[in-house]
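Hi V.,

Quick status before I head out on leave. The structure for the redesign project is tokenized and pasted below; the design run finished overnight.
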């Protein structure tokens, strides 16, 4: 379980993400987890979580793949 954060800080973070370009995606992901109702013991494997962390670290360093570039390069 992640560390508990102050409710006001957590709400502020949610609002900031919602106001950004990924707001719709964030809501879709949140809704998918909410609909599960906590019935699953594990959403992601430890390997998945490590991949996520590596991706977050890359984003913090300014490394990312633009979705439009990805679609164009992969003819999607």
């Amino acid at each position: 379980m992640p560390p508990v954060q102050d409710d006001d800080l957590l709400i502020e973070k949610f609002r900031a993400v919602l106001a950004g370009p990924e707001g719709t995606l964030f809501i879709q992901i949140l809704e998918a987890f909410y609909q599960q109702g906590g019935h699953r013991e594990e959403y992601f494997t430890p390997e998945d979580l490590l991949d996520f962390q590596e991706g977050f670290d890359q984003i913090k360093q300014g490394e990312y793949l633009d979705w439009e570039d990805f679609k164009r390069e992969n003819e999607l």
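Above is the designed sequence. The radius of gyration is 15 Å.

G. will cover questions while I'm gone.

Best,
W.
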